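Weekly puzzle thread! Below is a chain. First person to post its structure in token form gets bragging rights.
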Amino acid sequence: MLHARWIEHTLQPRFELGTSKGPINVRTVWYLIAWDSERPKIRGIGEAALFPGHSKEFPADVRTKLIELCAGTHDWSRRLATDLVDVPSVRFAVEQCMRDLEVSGTKQLFPSPFTLGQQSIPINGLVWMGDKATMRTRIREQIDKGFTTVKMKIGAIGIDDELELIKSVRAEFGATDITLRVDANGAFTSRNAMDVLERLATLDIHSIEQPVAPGLYEVMAELCERSPVPIALDEDLIGLNTAITRSDLLDHVKPKYIVIKPSLVGGWEATRQWIALAEARGIGWWITSALESNIGLNAIAQFTATLRVTMAQGLGTGSVYSNNIPSPLLAGSGVLRYQPEMAWDLSSLDERDI
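Winning reply:
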């Protein structure tokens, strides 16, 4: 018989994580832990990591579903296709937990050359928002660390200052040396977005994520048609939980790229569907984390490694926390690696729950 319980866990960023929606100074995630009464020492664990301000879920939704799941463990597989569809972060936690239990709690969810330490995943360096001087320092740090793709958050300190920072990078590094992506998180409006896009185009920008707020489909469709900078949809993917709504979005808006966050769209199966729909339409894609702990990041990274990606993914966020769960994941020199010789350390969680 399957038993389960859940833990609410608070993660502490090493520094204030600045976004156009405001700073992030603390992060709450939930762990779903399951075990079979016949093998009580073998535990599967999955992480639910909704993102306040982006997710359609609320913490109360997560807690309610986790309580239900732990009270009734007999129909988890069925619920992945029913009520859990509307609580994507919990759905992903169930996927992870069941998979980890299948592999005897080893967290080797998708064995591959990546988990053997033989291959790595290309990732981008991420520059969080801050004041101009801080962002300048952070850009330099990412380049010095060996990242050849750098993503910069924009839309908080003023576009003039942000463009000046990008110009300083381009003065030293051409587009063939450093690929620059920007992420607006919906910071611009229908009135000023095109002007921003035209100014960015002079700086050889690879792409811009979500220039206007999600849900403005007519505005976004027009921007995607006219923009001199390729547009990637990010937040617009969240909350579209059926193949029909996903197809309608891509057919109407016609973005150049989509950015898939498994924790926010519903896990591995939902990610596979987004990829299939995008590729059928000639739309590019990449996968990113949503500031999960290393439990969720590991689940996303191992899955991504099976897709044989060549474009930089957004999976370098594990080091932002001072109290992250020690794991075999290591980001550096523009890639994410898995060190199989390193053990997972779950001692930061309550031993009674693990």
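Puzzle host: Confirmed. Bonus trivia for everyone else. The mean pLDDT is 94.
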